[in-house]
Amino acid sequence: MKSTTPKIVIVGGGAGGLELATQLGHKLGKRNKAQILLIDKNRNHIWKPLLHEVATGSLDSDLDGVVYSAHAAKHGYQFQLGTFSALDPANKSLTLAPQLDENGQQILPWREVSFDKLVIAVGSVSNDFNTPGIKEFCYFLDSHQQAKRFHHALLDNFTRIHQANSNKSLNIAIVGAGATGVELSAELFHVADLLKVYGLDKMTRQKLNIHLIEAGDSILPALPARISAAVRRELSALGVNVMENTRIAKGCEQGFITSDEQLIPADLMLWAAGVKAPDFIREMGIFELNRVNQILVKADLTSTVDQDIYVIGDCCACKLPDGSWVPPRAQSAHQMAQCVQKNLLRELKGLPLQAYKYVDYGSLVNLSRYSTIGSLMGNLTKNSMFVEGRIARLVYISLYRMHQRAIHGSAKTLALWFAEKIMKVVRPRMKLH
Q: What pTM was estimated for this model as a whole?
């Protein structure tokens, strides 16, 4: 780094990006050893694994989210609202698109941002595989805005069924039986159980029909077969119609059309059948990419085309020694953020970069208040340990607490936990607006 006060720019305030900005802010920003700038197209952060709870109203993103500007002021970094649109590696600058308000009026113009080191952490978006009708008729859960949009539609349909005072049912079809689709299915039954508490007693869980659609021969295809089988049993017991080996040919106003031309009727359609890095990454024509737009990186997480550009999180294509790829999970983003933080500090000291080592701590699937199922990887054995019930639920919650600790510190995380306990007494268990 040539400058005496180098400028480190992080694009994307997801789990990895926000954790990295926070830690660099503490170690460099507050000590005036570097300028740390976080750029995101949103004003606040919500942990992505919780978006299905925002979608159902179990979690209020306005209360439980992190406001970047306020967080930056306390943790030694700067925040800039903007949408990453172009990159000039030779001149070490990136371009931010004009920022518009909800009425289409320009708030901010085109802007150029210089950097000495750049970290790309723009995450992932749903991959519709160019299936006809999906963009037009489906909801997605890539951001808290999309989760809110689904939530409002869900409330409208709950109200419609309740006030119609008939035997009509609400049909919800979810394509993609990965963690998002599975956890959303269970959470929908949970909020249906809560409706009677808030006066919508004619919209019962018996009137809720959920179709969980998976093209493969098993739900949760990335997880061990024992977990998939256990989760399938739990979902079937709840009343979810699990449809495996079912390929969707297109979406229409009435629902999904399968490859064998069968209609799966749906009042609400949600697509969660795969992820890819945002298309603008490919459109830049700068990086080496894999088939889902992820940026190829070297062992130290620098891009294969520029040593001054790091990539972390879901948009990062990092190949493991066995030939597999690091999965797009929150634990991966957390570990990548830690690695890049150490490497940036090593660069300031003139030390060589260290290789990223992915450690799989297991996988957990949370079926709302009904059950939690998964596997844990221990240090004493190479085999995974199957867990479910209260122990699995405790471990699942601890993952979010680890994220909070990384961005808030131990004291505030404890205070937030205490505040959540109090708020459960005074605020509704479901967001109804």
A: 0.92
